[in-house]
Amino acid sequence: MDKIITETAAQFDYEVALQVARQVLKKPDSVLCLATGNTTEGIFNELVKLAQGLSIDFSRVRTVNLDEYVGVSPDDPTSCRYRIEQQLFEKLHIPKENVYVPSSTAENAQQVCEEFERHLQELGGIDLMVLSTGENGHIAFNEPGTPFGCQVHIAKITRSTVEAKAALFGGEDKVPQAGVSMGVRSIMMTRRILLVAKGEHKAPIMKKILCGPVTEAVPASVLQLHNNVTLIADRAAMARVDCD
């Protein structure tokens, strides 16, 4: 696993954005898979600056999102689709037909999972994924205990994630109970992964992810087995990591 450690959060945002920009310059029709959340908001801001400053054309890029909440409308400000469109897609002028974010109700969630899986196959795989991890080691909605062999599936939102998302949704009781998520196996089939981590609150889990055993109890630990992962983290997130 390659490692890029930055001294500040601002440097972290720029470094991740730079890696994505390089991918698009190298392959203008790249398939990108991007996480949404607090970790990636600054990254997206820097990527927009780079794209505009260097006139990078994103019109041929195709994107998929890792996950989406079940029962949340795409135009709801709490949805993954709404946030990434506002923060990134619209500013980079990526055509809507090139964007895939699963959208489901409780009634058709399983059908959406099957459609998502077919779409990944039709794209021919993902070239570059920006992947963040939760404080319990989850990746996408693959919470601790998720089998490593799972593909796109309906995932139950755990208590720790409900607490983490309560402010976004306006209360724990308003956080959705499930999500459509790319599975661990689906993630591991990506050609190159950028594992990104920022902030001292991520330090305890980064030690487990990077130094501990590969275990379903820490889903992100499986990335130790991927042959093309670049870790990009700020110094605060790496404060407890002592395995080289």
TrEMBL record:
Keywords: Carbohydrate metabolism, Hydrolase. The keyword Nucleotide-binding does not apply. This is Glucosamine-6-phosphate deaminase. GO terms for molecular function: glucosamine-6-phosphate deaminase activity; identical protein binding. The keyword Hydrolase applies. Residues 9-228 form the Glucosamine/galactosamine-6-phosphate isomerase domain. Coiled coil: none annotated. GO terms for cellular component: cytoplasm. One of its GO terms (biological process) is carbohydrate metabolic process.
